[in-house]
Amino acid sequence: MTGYDVVIVGGGAAGLSAALVLSRARRRVAVVDSGLPRNAPAAHMHGFLSRDGMPPRDLLAAGRAEVSGYGGDLIDDTVATVEPGFRVRLARGDTLETRRLLVATGLRDELPDIPGLRERFGRDVLHCPYCHGYEVRDQPLVVLGDAGHALIVRQWSPEVTFLPHTSAVTADERARLTARGIPVVEGKAAGLVVTDDRLTGVQLDGGEVVACAAVFVRPRFVPHSSVLADLGCARDENGWAVVDPTGRTSVPGVWAAGNAVDPRAQVITAAGAGSAAAIALNADLVDEDVRLALAAL
Fold it and tell me: Residue 58 is inside which H or E element, if any?
């Protein structure tokens, strides 16, 4: 049994950023992480000031070294259960006791059931133009299933083709796409065409191939929220935990940050959310420390 001020579940940008702030605030902190980051398939991350183009694993390695340097504990494991109080039971059998809990477990991307899509996700099957659009600028691109997404991707290339796949295109959407020079190709995507380990097109169910260098698709974002659900944290109509601007949930002592509560958070956004949560957590602990000290007088 090991006691901490804060146990952080998830060691991505949000969790490590929070751990760094809390460790520097001289709190006893543990980060529990399974080593399976959401952006693992991506060779580089972008849009993070001063770290643009850095491989995601390099950022995590640097963050882990910084947290460890300030005395934070890094535990390579997963959380099995969290009991009110909080007693955190790990999959390998250890138990951690903590005064506060920060959940930064991220989300998973559910992709359309198209052969080859998952295997190339993060390489030339992309979802975020702000993360990867510049790297495929001015190349022929296909946007799958979301007309609004196609209009955004058009900022990076004049050669954008929209494939509705299984979605319907309204008259207004079609007019907007036409106005921006984005052709609409009807037909269901049946698979990807890959040549020498490079994406070269999308094959339709009728056999036609739409040439492209990359495909943009919006996944369905599903939070890794089992810990939050088990603790009874309030969730919205879409299943996402409800938090205040600092990440405080409806359950006293529990915070959440990053993609676990914000599907649109990029790496830099998640890191900022982790920092904000850490500052709020420390303030909450200070208040408790004062109450305990007064009670002991």
Answer: helix 56-69
